[in-house]
Write a structure and sequence with these properties.
Elements: H1 2-20, H2 28-48, H3 51-68
Helix pairs in contact: 1-2, 2-3
């Protein structure tokens, strides 16, 4: 069970890193929203280890990133 959590955390971090490369043509607010959602999803996966915490973390991170980007 612990190795599944580690693999999912690593996969989320890799997904965030890959998605950041697609932020070149985005507005600053859009980029901050995407980064916040990615980091929030990775944090939710690391803390909770299930889909609900990953989705909740992504949603919270997206909102925070959107507001910080203003």
């Amino acid at each position: 069970m612990k190795s599944i959590r580690q693999i999912s955390t690593l996969a989320a971090i890799v997904a965030v890193a890959v998605s950041l490369s697609a932020c070149e043509g985005m507005s600053r607010q859009g980029r901050d929203t995407a980064i916040g959602a990615g980091l929030g999803g990775a944090a939710g996966a690391a803390v909770g280890g299930n889909a609900l915490s990953t989705i909740g973390g992504a949603a919270a991170g997206g909102v925070i990133g959107h507001e910080v980007g203003k």
